[in-house]
Amino acid sequence: MEKIKQYEPGYWESRKKRGKPKKLESPQVLWELACEYFQSVDDNPFRKQEIVKGGWLAGTVFSTENIRPYTWNGLENMLFERDIVVNLTDYRMNTKGNYDAYSKVLRAIDKILFDQKFSGAAVGAFDPRIIAMELGLTNKQELKVIEEQPLFRELPESDNKELPASGTDVSDAEIVD
């Protein structure tokens, strides 16, 4: 396509679209990519090497498969590796309103990520403390400090009167009001 000069007719038509084109052409494309990510995570669990610590198999090394959690960072890494987008922050935050069409898909993805992490932590597949922090479910305890009433009330400066020294006979003391 030949570039139109500013003074030529039709220039304004070429200027209707501003900025870079969206890398994710539609919400459907984002959903399909997210589903590919979920499948990739499910198909590639973590492999952990463990050693039998006791019994007649002591010292034997065996491998276990551990489920991997779905994360926004993992999805963004996959999209980055494919040279689609660097991150989804603009899509998720939608500060300029350019990505309104993506909000339902992003909400669905967010709920899937939350559910998989929460469910995994509930059954012990993931460390519940780490997942709780990730999901913003930390157990916050509010400490309320109550200042107790002092045993002896301090008198204001105007009420302070000279008291006789200890061991002094007060029977002859003059009482002043």
Detail the topology: elements first, then pairings:
Blueprint: H1 11-14, H2 27-43, E1 46-51, E2 61-66, H3 72-81, H4 89-93, H5 103-122, H6 128-134
Helix pairs in contact: 2-3, 2-5, 5-6
Quick rundown:
Helix content is 36%, strand content 7%.
Model description:
The protein has a domain of 116 residues: Orthogonal Bundle (Topoisomerase I, Chain A, domain 4). Strands 1-2 form a two-stranded antiparallel ribbon. The protein is flat and about 105 Å long. Helix 2 packs parallel to helix 5. The protein is mainly α and 177 residues long. The chain has six helices and two strands; from the N terminus they run H-H-E-E-H-H-H-H. Helix content is 36%, strand content 7%.
Query: Which CATH C-level class of the domain at 19-134 is it?
Result: Mainly Alpha
Fold-level CATH name of the domain at 19-134: Topoisomerase I, Chain A, domain 4
Report on the biggest sheet.
2 strands, antiparallel
Indicate the mean pLDDT.
79
Question: What structural category do the secondary elements indicate?
Answer: mainly alpha
Label the CATH architecture of the domain at 19-134: Orthogonal Bundle
Radius of gyration: 35 Å
End-to-end separation: 104 Å
Give the % helix.
25-40%
The count of β-strands is 2
Treating each run of at least 4 consecutive H or I residues as one helix, how many helices?
6
Strands ordered across the widest β-sheet: 1-2
Strand percentage lies at 5-15%
Tell me, briefly, the overall form: flat
Order of helices and strands, N to C? HHEEHHHH
Query: Are there runs of 5+ residues with pLDDT below 50, and where?
Result: none
